[in-house]
């Protein structure tokens, strides 16, 4: 990370659990998938992990990814999708409350609940930390539609829109092919008139 932020790493790890065009599978498809992800990230959860927990994790993750796409200025994200994601995140803040723990070293937001709710609350705490440090807008999701991989924008002017040169090239090639098809269609229409 450009800022060395554990908060940024946590949000990126959470956001990058979705299926993508590169062969990545949905990690929150069911309770087993969520449990496996929790273990892989070193998060200990007391109590059962259910399919309902996996569904809640997917909803929260998808809302976060939508907001990260707005940070990338993705023109394909609709105003409705943004509003729905923001509303879901507001409801999540009520559902997964945090407590400010204050000591001589500073303040830390900690989940009040336990289990999967604590993990989802910790993601919200990480987002809050990023917002307060001014790094939230640097977390973005790749504008390449099959990817939408979350990444930290390290560019000086925060202009990155793709997670890699490969994704940028794919988008460019699709645009070139679309222009060529449009030109060919126009040329066919001209010859038929």
Descriptive report:
The protein has 193 residues and is mostly helical. The protein contains six helices and four strands. It has helices spanning 6-15, 31-40, 51-71, 79-95, 116-133, 165-192; strands at 98-103, 106-111, 139-141, 150-152. The strands form two sheets. Strands 1-2 form a two-stranded antiparallel ribbon. α1 (6-15) packs across α5 (116-133), α2 packs across α3 (51-71) and α3 (51-71) crosses α4 (79-95). The protein is elongated.
Give a topology summary:
Blueprint: H1 6-15, H2 31-40, H3 51-71, H4 79-95, E1 98-103, E2 106-111, H5 116-133, E3 139-141, E4 150-152, H6 165-192
Antiparallel strand pairs: 1-2, 3-4
Provide tags for this entry:
193 residues, mainly alpha, two-stranded antiparallel sheet, 4 strands, 54% helix
In short:
It is built from six helices and four strands, in the order ααααββαββα. With 193 residues, it is mainly alpha-helical.
